[in-house]
Design brief:
- The complex is a heterodimer of chains A (112) and B (112).
- With 112 residues, chain A is mainly beta.
- Chain A has no helices and eleven strands.
- In chain A, the strands form two sheets. In chain A, strands 2, 4, 5, 9, 10 and 11 form a six-stranded mixed beta sheet that branches. Chain A has a five-stranded antiparallel beta sheet with strand order 1-3-8-7-6, with no helix packed on it.
- In chain A, strand 7 (62-67) and strand 8 form a beta hairpin.
- The radius of gyration of chain A is 13 Å and the shape is globular.
- Chain B is an all-beta fold and 112 residues long.
- In chain B, strands 2, 4, 5, 6, 9, 10 and 11 form a seven-stranded mixed beta sheet that branches. A four-stranded antiparallel beta sheet of chain B has the order 1-3-8-7, with no helix packed on it.
- The termini of chain B are far apart.
- The interface between A and B is medium-sized, with 26 and 29 residues.
Chain lengths: 112, 112
Amino acid sequence: KQEVTQIPAALSVPEGENLVLNCSFTDSAIYNLQWFRQDPGKGLTSLLLIQSSQREQTSGRLNASLDKSSGRSTLYIAASQPGDSATYLCAVRTGGGNKLTFGTGTQLKVEL
Amino acid sequence: ETGVTQSPTHLIKTRGQQVTLRCSSQSGHNTVSWYQQALGQGPQFIFQYYREEENGRGNFPPRFSGLQFPNYSSELNVNALELDDSALYLCASSLEGGNEQFFGPGTRLTVL
């Protein structure tokens, strides 16, 4: 059974700092890994999708890496801004179908 | 291109009642998945529909059921509501064989 863990559970940083969010998964036989952002009480916004054959993906100030063999992914946020404050979730697609298994998220607060 | 929409936004029910939640998939997407997100947790996979048939189910009891219509919109029905059913219900759509899932804003269900 796939299990996804995210560390830390919460993080508070000053504006402008670079930061790394971590995600680990127990079954390395994944199709892809997706990072999402969730604002309080809202739906999920897809940030980055990494296929199992890829090592990293970049979008603006965001960079996600994937090490499938060790069951790890990181989301790097450069020059953080208060608008980046949200919960960040990683999810892996394992096996047939499009079922995603989610971690419990990292709640990020970027302070002025 | 219209994104994933869900209705209603909020809903309050009492124990034992039945509820129907609705989802319209993103244009051209024929696969719909439903997730339950309890407060402070990551989303949990309920089930997925592809071409009007259930195509995968998570660890949820039979009182959680669904439908998909020819236009690929979908319904989630929950019978005999329990207090623990209080959660944010998220719908996600994707293309057949597609990798990325796109989520709607969710329906907040409160069971009293």
